[in-house]
Design brief:
Layout (H helix, E strand, L loop, with lengths): L1 E8 L6 H12 L11 E7 L6 H12 L5 E7 L1
Antiparallel strand pairs: 1-2, 1-3
Length: 76
């Protein structure tokens, strides 16, 4: 069983990496990009029977800094 966790900075939290990407895209001629938010995707290979609640606990305890980041979980 697999799980995919998407972690992004919360709205209102400055994203210097995203701003650097936006600036670099503009320098390359991609003027239509007004903003970039950069995040991360974590793929977990889980043992059968692992619940979504357990993955959520992993996010709360380690995978996301819930003070400044939000996350979503997909179980496949």
């Amino acid at each position: 069983m697999k799980a995919r966790v998407h972690v992004m900075l919360k709205n209102g939290v400055l994203d210097p990496q995203g701003e650097a990407v936006r600036h670099a895209l503009g320098a390359l001629g991609f003027d239509g990009v007004k903003g970039v938010r950069q995040g991360k995707v974590i793929e977990l290979d889980l043992a059968d029977g692992t619940s979504e609640a357990e993955v959520t606990a992993m996010c709360e305890k380690l995978l996301a800094n819930t003070v400044i980041e939000s996350y979503s979980v997909e179980i496949a």
